[in-house]
User: Which sequence fits this backbone?
């Protein structure tokens, strides 16, 4: 049985934990639709290898396109809309940093395995208390994960802003150069 199928069979308290770490960085819809394919990829290795991460990101988008084609035949307008939006967000967010998507997916899969292991542990007296404290540390890890994702997003936005500023500077330079050339040629024609 796939890891995702096991996750879906968990009790509600564990499902709530799973829900906490799926967000816009990696929406649960994609995890659900591409469960088997996602689990068959080596996201851990890709998180340290840009070439592999780029290939996996492209393949993820291809898989998403295939799902979009399948859903389009079913004429499920809401799902079609959501998948198109998610694809656009994923492509825009991770195009310049494909290793980040590998890190995000790898973390999600690792958290799922941890929750599955916790769900399969027999709960007895003192162990119950340790699970509660692990739940607090789990929340802290989730918050830290989200903070790291936000920092990464800010960094990517800053890089994009810098790139756009450089483009604007280049445009201004070329525009002024062309204006100067046009005004000198106009002066030469009048002389």
Assistant:
């Amino acid at each position: 049985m796939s890891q995702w199928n096991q996750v879906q069979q968990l009790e509600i308290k564990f499902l709530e934990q799973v829900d906490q770490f799926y967000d816009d960085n990696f929406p649960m819809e994609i995890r659900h639709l591409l469960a088997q394919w996602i689990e068959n990829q080596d996201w851990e290795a890709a998180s340290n290898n840009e070439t592999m991460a780029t290939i996996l990101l492209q393949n993820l988008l291809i898989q998403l396109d295939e799902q979009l084609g399948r859903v389009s035949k079913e004429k499920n307008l809401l799902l079609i809309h959501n998948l198109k939006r998610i694809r656009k967000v994923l492509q825009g967010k991770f195009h310049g940093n494909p290793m980040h998507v590998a890190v995000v997916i790898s973390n999600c899969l690792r958290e799922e395995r941890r929750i599955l292991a916790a769900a399969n542990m027999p709960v007895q007296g003192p162990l119950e208390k340790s699970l509660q404290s692990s739940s607090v540390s789990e929340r802290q890890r989730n918050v830290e994960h989200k903070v790291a994702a936000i920092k990464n997003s800010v960094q990517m936005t800053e890089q994009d802003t810098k790139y756009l500023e450089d483009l604007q500077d280049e445009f201004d330079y070329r525009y002024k150069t062309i204006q100067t050339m046009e005004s000198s040629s106009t002066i030469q024609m009048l002389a």
Q: What stands out?
A: The two ends are 85 Å apart (CA to CA). Residues 139-190 form one domain. The chain has a mean pLDDT of 84.
